[in-house]
Amino acid sequence: MKKNYSLLLLLFVTVGFSQIPSGYYNTATGTGYTLKTQLYNIIKGHTDNGYAGLYTTYQTSDVDNFYENDGTVLDMYSENPSGTDPYNYSTGSTQRCGNYSAEGDCYNREHIIPQSVFNEQSPMVADAHFITPTDGKVNGMRSNYPHGTVSSATYTSQNGSKLGSSSVSGYSGTVFEPVNEFKGDIARMYFYFATRYENTVAGYTYAMFDGSGNKVFTTAFLNILLAWNAQDPVSAREIARNNAIYARQNNRNPYIDHPEYINQIWGGTAPSGDTQAPTAPTSLASTATTASSISVSWNASTDNVGVTGYDVYVNSVLKTTVSGITATITGLTASTSYSIYVKAKDAAGNISSSSNIVSPTTNASGGTGGTATELLFSEYVEGSGNNKALEIANNTGSSVSLSTYTVKKQTNGDGSWSTGLVLNGTLTSGSKFTIVNSSMAASCYATTSANISTTATELTFNGNDAVGLFKNGVLIDIIGTFNGGTANFAADVTLRRKSTVTSPSTTFNISSQWDSFSADTCSNLGAKKAKVESIETEEETFTGLNGLVLYPNPTNGNFNIYFDIINSPYSIEIISILGQKVFEKSNITDSLSTINNLPKGIYIVRINSGSETFNKKIIIN
């Protein structure tokens, strides 16, 4: 039996290397800004290895042992956390080459707090805790702009990082927004800087700073950093980076070791004297319905301090609270109309007036528009860059083998169909089979549960490329017009099949068959992902557990463990990358086990059956 020794070795090495020095935080006993000063006294006076020494530090602190696990430079501005990186760098090479005309030329050093803020003075200029290796082109585009949320992007890097106009309340300048995967990392670097340089930061002028040595940040930017810290918790990558920098500098980022310190210092209290309520959310609309759920979206509210969330009401009863501007209400009754409105709230507890009211109706029980006669395309995404996706629905009432189905594309409205992307497995009734371009932006990929992630030609379509679903080589459903020429039938748009459509069609009619949404609307993809059966594991074969597969992997929190055949009970253990057992269940006889709500991180899934053991890595994004 093949053993995954490399994963187990990584597990043991990480456990041995990740201990916080004994007594390091013994004097951190206060709260509020007192705690911050106590932390300053712990981490000040670190070893300064010089500006050139950063490249030596990066050889251990910023190595990709967490995504592709290929030992390349881990760059937050080019790393694709859920797909293939657009390019890679090796430590010790392609650095400081001075040619930053395009992404992928060479990498250099990115000061998360620009070095012009502190006049390039030491030790700030060489402190690796807030200076990271990044692609030179993207670093140059970020320039000295503050980090924040972008309203309208003027530049987007190949991994989805954006530069553009600010949506930060009260700040109208240009900001730079990293991908979601690294927002917490960057926020904790800012909090480190505010603490390590508490004695000098009051003298620094920067858009994000308020001129004080205690709070440091303006309220608007502090709210952004607090939100990013909460949304993107500490990862195994950050822990490893903190350890590696400690080995070089002899100080640590306390907010990686103890993220709870952040709220103890800056969070948890409402802004003093804030009595102004946010504006009401606008343009509330229903974006999707099923027999038991309704999805809605709206335009964001504004507030003098900052909006912290939205309350969604169904039939005048509070149903859910969300931080974004979309929500899905579940557990509803089929063929029923519901009255929905939304209210915004801020940190002081001020509540806005209600949005407009929408009254969508769930679909009839049994699937989209009733029982379908055949599989059909249910969603199409033709977004920016490589944001391309297709979704196939099974509303036939029975499981359908996908072995006779292929997806084909005609290029530029001319010529023959492509060879075709062959599907496999079994699509259960009521499920959807989602195919995405593996190079799609992280912001889009993060909301998607994909069955196939690929760069095959069938997933590189443009707005004038017809896409067809074939059964036994015969076209049964089509998006677009075959031999339609260069005319765009669906460019920069997301299409979802109308609930009234229950049969595939070889004639495309966008107005009667499809509902249209704006470009890069990915939130509904894979809303009910397929259970795909009969897939053999690549790692090893069991006598007692045949056809073992973990899916999806990577995942956003939930995943499945599936076996074709079970001849004996089995047990499941899930172990964090730091060696902590986070889940255990024994004497399982079901062929499908679902694991829910694992925190973000890298884990080892260990399956035991009799004398046999299987180890596999699972990544929770």
From TrEMBL:
SMART domains: FN3
Keywords: Endonuclease, Hydrolase, Nuclease, Signal
Domain (Fibronectin type-III) ranges: 280-365
Domain of life of the source: Bacteria
One Pfam entry name: Endonuclease_1
CDD domains: FN3 (cd00063)
Signal sequence annotation: 1-18
Keyword Lipid biosynthesis tagged: no
Keyword set includes Hydrolase: yes
InterPro entries registered for this protein in UniProt: Endonuclease-I, FN3_dom, FN3_sf, His-Me_finger_sf, Ig-like_fold, Lamin_tail_dom, Secre_tail
GO MF terms, alphabetically ordered: endonuclease activity
UniProt domain LTD: residue ranges: 359-505
Family named by the database record: Belongs to the EndA/NucM nuclease family.
Protein name as annotated: Endonuclease
